[in-house]
Amino acid sequence: MVRHFAEKSLVVASHNAGKVREIRELLAPFGIETVSAGDLGLPEPEETGATFQANAELKALAAAKAADRPALADDSGLCVEALNGAPGIQSARWAGPQKDFDFAMERIRLGLVEEGTLNTRAHFIAGLALAWPDGHVEYFEGRVDGELVWPPRGLLGFGYDPMFVPDGHEQTFGEMEPAKKHAMSHRAHAFRQLVDACFKG
Ligand code: IMP
After folding, report:
1. Phi and psi of 4, rounded to 5°?
2. pTM tops 0.90
3. What's the CATH number where 34 sits?
4. Which residue has the least CA distance to atom 8 on ligand 1?
5. Is 30 near ligand 1, meaning CB less than 6 Å away?
């Protein structure tokens, strides 16, 4: 059975200020106080899992146990069909230590050229794990499908947004107003499931 979140506060198990802010905003309507793993000085665990679920769960569990209260973590990435799902869980790492996403997008384009394929299908995945100090974890996953375009378009958004056009739309995520992207994104789908299962009622 799904465990309902009955506590008053939780740890956002991320050291990424942008992610922490986004998660805080999403949780604010439920009157849940948040503190980030960074604020608590918790170490950042190595993402050794082979799936989005494994990585989200290991981050959430490590923070919940260290802080002795529930913790929420996410893991996300872009999966390119013709590249067997790459960069996938390696999405952040493909941008290198400089976090250069022009370089990461170029890597994808070159990968498709090397494959000699016209298949530009891709999807974003967002996994969200809510863990308790006793080791219980709830996991939810959201997905948005679309096409890759070249050259990248748009200066809004982040990461791989400028080369991704969600199905049924003509703008890339990089060209869309944030509110429009947030209403349809992989992260929004995952959050809706989490809220319905754990925070409502
Ligand atoms: P992690 O979840 O911190 O391991 O990193 C996820 C990586 O996936 C980010 O650094 C981005 O490169 C990519 N990513 C995840 N979600 C999005 C998105 O909504 N738009 C663009 N890139 C994303």
Report:
1. -80, 145
2. yes
3. 3.90.950.10
4. 77
5. no
